[in-house]
C-alpha cells in the first residue's frame, strides 16, 4: 500500500492543489477552500488529519470507550475521549438523535451494508461508535443510508459509471465499490477534496485504477472498469461524453449559487444519465434565516424534461438532530432552518 506522502506527491504532479476556480462561489465554499489551503500549508498535519478537520469532519458520535478506541485513536486522543465522556453534558439529546439514525438504518436494511464497512477500520478515522456488530459515526450513517437506497432501488449495476458531484473523502464510493467492484466511480470536487478522496480510496483499494483528470489528458472511458476518476471542478466539461447510469449529489447543490448549480444540472451528463439521486434542502435560504447565498428550492430540481420523479421523501438521517447554533443573536439547541428531501429522478428512455 502506498504511503500518504507518496500519494500526495503523485496527486500534485497531475492536479493543481490550490484551486483556481472560475465559477462564482458561495460564501460557505469560499471559506472551506481558504481554510483548506491554510491547512495545506503544513503537509504533515494535513496528512494526519486529511479526513477530519475544522472545515469538515465525520461529525458527532456518542463518546464510547473500548480497547478499539485506544488502539485506533492512540493514547492522546483516547484520553480526550475519556474526558469528553465524563463531561458530555449534552449526551442525552445527542445520543438519542444518533440512536434514532441507527434505527432508521436498521429498518432501511442498511445494517448489513454497515457490517461490510466498519468505519473504525478505514483510513483516517477519528470518531466511531460500536453497536450490534457495526461501527459507524454520523457521516458514515449518511453514506450507509444512501448506499442502501441506491442498492435497494437498483439505481446502479456492475460494469457501469457513477458520477458524484461533491465527494469529500470518497466515503460513498467506498460503500458502493463493495457491491459494484467492476464499476467506475467519477468524482467532481475542489482539488483539496479530491486529494482527500485520492488518499482515502487509494489506501482502501490499491489494486483499482486511479485516474487524475486534467485538461492535458485525452482519455477514452469506453472500456474502463474498476476505476476511480478524480475530476477538478473546472474540468467537469471533460465528462460531457461519458454515459452515466447514476449521478448523485448530497447536500452541496443546495449550498451553491444558482448559476453554478445550473451549470451542472442542465449539462449533458445529467440530461443523458439514467438515474439521479439527490439529497438537498427544500429551501436553500429561508426568508427568516438566509443560511446560504442561494435562491435554489426543491422546484429547481424538476427542470430536467428528460427525467421523471421516481421517489420523493424526507431525508431521514440527521432529521431528528437539534444542533446548538447561533440564530437571532442567541446560541441555543435548534432544528435547522430547512429540512432535507431525497429525490430519485429517472430517465425512462435511457439505454
Description:
- The protein contains 11 helices and 12 strands.
- The protein is an alpha/beta fold.
- The chain has a single domain (4-57, 154-346), classed as 3-Layer(aba) Sandwich (Rossmann fold), CATH 3.40.50.
- Strands 5-6-4-3-7-8-12-9 form an 8-stranded mixed beta sheet, with helices on one face. It has a two-stranded antiparallel sheet with strand order 1-2. A two-stranded antiparallel ribbon has the order 10-11.
- Strand 3 (161-165), helix 8 (171-179) and strand 4 form a beta-alpha-beta unit.
- Helix 5 runs parallel beside helix 7 (138-152).
- The chain is globular.
CATH architecture: 3-Layer(aba) Sandwich
Residues in β-strands, percent: 15-25%
Would you list the SSEs in sequence order as H and E?
HHHHHHEEHEHEHEEEHHEEEEE
Total number of strands: 12
- Number of separate structural domains: 1
CATH top level class name: Alpha Beta
Assign the CATH topology.
Answer: Rossmann fold
Please tell me the overall pLDDT.
92
Rg estimate, integer Å: 20 Å
Helical proportion, percent range:
25-40%
| Main β sheet profile | 8 strands, mixed
Q: Flag low-confidence runs.
A: none
CATH superfamily: Vaccinia Virus protein VP39
Q: What strand line-up does the widest sheet have?
A: 5-6-4-3-7-8-12-9
Number of helices: 11
Distance between the termini: 38 Å
Principal-axes geometry comes out as globular
Structural class: alpha/beta
Amino acid at each position: 500500500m502506498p504511503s500518504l506522502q507518496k500519494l500526495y506527491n503523485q496527486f500534485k504532479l497531475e492536479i493543481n492543489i490550490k484551486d483556481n476556480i472560475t465559477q462564482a462561489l458561495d460564501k460557505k465554499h469560499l471559506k472551506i477552500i481558504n481554510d483548506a489551503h491554510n491547512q495545506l500549508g503544513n503537509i504533515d498535519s494535513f496528512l494526519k488529519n486529511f479526513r477530519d478537520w475544522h472545515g469538515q469532519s465525520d461529525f458527532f458520535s456518542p463518546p464510547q470507550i473500548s480497547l478499539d478506541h485506544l488502539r485506533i485513536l492512540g493514547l492522546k486522543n483516547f484520553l480526550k475521549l475519556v474526558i469528553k465522556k465524563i463531561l458530555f453534558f449534552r449526551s442525552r439529546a445527542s445520543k438519542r438523535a444518533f440512536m434514532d439514525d441507527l434505527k432508521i438504518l436498521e429498518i432501511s436494511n442498511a445494517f448489513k451494508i454497515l457490517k461490510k464497512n466498519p468505519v473504525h477500520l478505514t483510513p483516517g478515522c477519528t470518531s466511531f461508535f460500536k453497536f450490534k456488530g457495526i461501527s459507524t459515526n454520523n457521516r458514515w450513517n449518511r453514506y450507509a443510508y444512501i448506499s442502501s437506497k441506491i442498492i435497494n432501488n437498483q439505481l446502479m449495476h456492475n460494469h457501469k459509471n457513477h458520477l458524484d458531484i461533491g465527494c469529500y473523502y470518497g466515503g460513498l464510493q467506498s460503500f458502493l465499490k463493495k457491491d459494484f467492484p467492476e464499476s467506475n466511480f467519477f468524482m467532481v470536487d475542489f482539488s483539496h477534496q479530491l486529494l482527500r478522496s485520492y488518499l482515502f480510496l487509494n489506501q482502501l483499494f490499491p489494486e483499482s485504477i486511479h485516474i487524475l483528470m486534467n485538461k492535458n489528458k485525452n482519455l477514452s472511458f469506453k472500456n474502463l472498469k474498476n476505476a476511480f476518476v478524480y475530476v477538478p471542478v473546472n474540468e467537469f466539461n471533460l465528462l460531457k461524453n461519458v454515459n452515466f447510469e447514476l449521478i448523485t449529489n448530497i447536500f452541496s447543490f443546495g449550498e451553491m449559487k444558482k448559476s453554478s448549480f445550473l451549470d451542472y444540472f442542465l449539462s449533458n451528463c445529467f440530461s443523458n444519465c439514467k438515474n439521479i439521486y439527490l439529497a438537498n434542502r427544500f429551501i436553500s435560504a429561508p426568508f427568516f434565516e438566509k443560511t446560504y447565498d442561494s435562491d435554489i428550492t426543491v422546484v429547481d430540481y424538476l427542470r430536467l424534461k428528460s427525467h421523471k420523479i421516481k421517489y420523493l421523501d424526507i431525508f431521514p438521517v440527521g432529521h431528528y438532530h437539534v444542533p446548538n447554533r447561533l440564530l437571532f443573536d442567541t446560541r441555543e439547541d435548534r432544528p435547522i432552518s430547512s429540512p432535507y428531501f431525497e429525490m430519485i429522478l429517472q430517465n425512462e428512455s435511457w439505454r
